Amino acid sequence: MTESEAPVEVVDCVGMQCPLPVIKIAQAMKGRDPGQLLELLATDPGVEPDMQAWTRRTKNELVGINKDGDVFHVLVRKGG
Q: Is 18 a catalytic residue?
């Protein structure tokens, strides 16, 4: 990831269970411009299928999901 692609916001949902990570990222996206990148941190294993479904439904882009220890790092780009 280049410096210009660094997330403009990190939404920390570590320890939160579904549906809170989806709710929190949706709230964070509301104030963002199309194309901006946000990172969601979550420990709920359900975050992966939840974010895949949410991005499809909302036309946002799921850039990637990586797991570091118990924490999922989810990159989402605001759709146009």
A: yes
pLDDT tens digits along 37-46: 999 999 999 9
Please report, for the domain that includes residue 11, its CATH number. 3.30.110.40
- Work out whether the CA dihedral 27, 47, 45, 62 comes out positive or negative: negative
Sign, Cα dihedral of 62, 36, 46, 53: negative
- Strand blocks (E) in the chain: 9-13, 37-42, 61-68, 71-77
Q: Which residue range is the domain that position 62 belongs to?
A: 3-77
Tokens matching residue 74: 């989810």
* pLDDT confidence of residue 5: 82
Mean pLDDT of 49-78: 97
Instruction: Please tell me which residue in 7, 16, 18, 63 is annotated as part of the active site.
Output: 18
